[in-house]
C-alpha cells in the first residue's frame, strides 16, 4: 500500500476548515487507543512510539490501553460500542477486520457498519523461520523436506485463523504440500517453541524473527514482503523465490460508527505528518515495520480488498470458530 499521496494529504487538510464546527470542541479529553492484544507485540510497540508525537498537534494525550482476548475481538467490540465522539479508537489489523468476520459466525461486531475508518499506519511483513536442527539450508530445501514427509512436519502460529496460520496454509496449498498446524496463545510462545525445537517452522513478524536469528536460534528462509528489508538485506522475498504470496499483517486506526468524518480526516493527517521524521521511521525500521498511511476512504477500500483476499483461503480450509 503506497504512502499517502501529496494530493490526498493536501485535500484532507484543505477540507478541515469547512469542518471546523465539528472540530472546534475536539478533542476535549485524552484520546484512547485500544490495542486488542497483549503489550510488547509489534502493533503495541509502534503505536506507543507514534502516540507521543501525535499528542502535540492534537492537543491532548494519546493513551494506549491493552485489552486482549478472542483473537482481538474483545477490544474491538469495546470500540464498536464506544461513544463516537473521537476520543476512542481501535488499533485494527487483518485479524480484527478482515479475517475474524470470516471465521466467527457470531462475531460481536460488524467490521464495516460498526466502525469509521481513519488510516493505516504500518505494514508488518512476516519472515518464514525454521528450527536450526531441521536440516535444510534454504527455501527450496524446506519445500523438498515438507514434500518428502507429508503431514509430518509442524508449523506454529498464534491461533487458529491468525494471519501466520493462513499465510502458511496459503503457501502449502500453492505448492500442494501438507504440514501439521500447532496453534499457540501468542507470538512469544509460538516462537519459543521454534527456538526450543518443539515445532519445525512458522511465519513470524520480521523484526522479532531477525532478533532471534542473530545467535542462530532460528534460521530465516524468506520474507513475505514486496521487497527486501534493510534489516535483512540478504534474505530473499517469497516473490523472488517464485511464490506470489504476501505474508504479513497491517495495522490501522478506526473509530466507532458515526464518528465525524472531519475528526477521522484530522487524525489521518496528524498520523501521516508524525510518520515523516527520520527518528520515527528509524523506530519502525528497527521493528521491520513499514510506515504506511492512507486517507479514511482509502483505508475503507483497503480493508474490503484484504477481506476478499483472505476469503478464499478461509473457505478452502473451512475454518469456523464459535
Automatic annotation (TrEMBL):
Residues 1-24 form the signal peptide. InterPro entries: BUG, Bug_dom1. The keyword Signal applies. It holds the Pfam family TctC. It comes from the Bacteria. The keyword NADP does not apply. SUPFAM superfamilies: Periplasmic binding protein-like II (SSF53850). Keywords: Signal. Belongs to the UPF0065 (bug) family. PANTHER family: BLR1237 PROTEIN, TRICARBOXYLATE-BINDING PROTEIN. This is ABC transporter substrate-binding protein. It comes from Teichococcus deserti.
Amino acid at each position: 500500500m503506497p504512502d499517502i499521496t501529496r494530493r490526498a494529504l493536501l485535500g484532507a487538510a484543505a477540507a478541515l476548515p469547512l469542518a471546523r464546527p465539528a472540530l472546534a470542541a475536539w478533542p476535549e479529553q485524552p484520546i484512547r487507543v485500544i490495542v486488542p492484544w497483549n503489550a510488547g507485540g509489534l502493533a503495541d510497540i509502534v503505536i506507543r512510539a507514534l502516540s507521543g508525537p501525535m499528542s502535540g498537534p492534537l492537543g491532548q494525550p494519546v493513551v494506549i490501553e491493552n485489552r486482549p482476548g478472542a483473537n482481538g475481538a474483545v477490544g474491538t467490540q469495546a470500540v464498536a460500542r464506544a461513544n463516537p465522539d473521537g476520543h476512542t479508537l481501535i488499533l485494527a489489523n487483518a485479524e480484527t477486520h478482515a479475517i475474524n468476520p470470516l471465521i466467527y459466525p457470531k462475531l460481536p461486531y460488524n467490521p464495516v457498519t460498526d466502525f469509521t475508518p481513519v488510516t493505516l499506519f504500518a505494514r508488518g511483513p512476516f519472515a518464514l523461520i525454521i528450527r536450526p536442527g531441521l536440516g535444510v539450508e534454504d527455501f527450496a530445501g524446506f519445500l523438498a523436506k515438507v514434500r518428502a514427509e507429508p503431514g509430518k512436519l509442524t508449523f506454529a502460529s498464534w491461533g487458529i485463523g491468525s494471519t501466520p496460520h493462513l499465510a502458511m496454509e496459503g503457501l502449502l496449498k500453492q505448492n500442494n504440500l501438507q504440514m501439521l498446524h500447532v496453534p499457540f496463545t501468542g507470538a512469544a510462545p509460538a516462537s519459543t517453541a521454534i527456538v526450543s525445537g518443539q515445532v519445525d517452522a512458522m511465519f513470524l513478524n520480521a523484526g522479532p524473527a531477525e532478533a532471534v536469528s542473530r545467535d542462530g536460534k532460528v534460521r530465516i528462509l524468506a520474507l513475505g514482503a514486496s521487497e527486501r528489508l534493510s534489516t535483512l538485506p540478504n534474505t530473499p522475498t517469497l516473490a523472488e523465490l517464485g511464490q506470489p504470496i504476501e505474508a504479513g499483517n497491517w495495522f490501522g486506526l478506526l473509530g466507532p460508527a458515526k464518528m465525524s468524518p472531519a475528526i477521522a480526516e484530522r487524525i489521518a493527517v496528524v498520523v501521516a505528518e508524525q510518520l515523516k521524521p527520520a527518528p520515527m521511521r528509524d523506530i519502525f525500521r528497527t521493528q521491520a515495520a513499514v510506515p504506511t498511511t492512507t486517507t479514511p476512504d482509502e483505508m475503507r477500500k483497503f480493508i474490503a480488498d484484504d477481506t476478499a483476499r483472505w476469503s478464499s483461503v478461509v473457505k478452502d480450509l473451512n475454518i469456523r470458530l464459535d
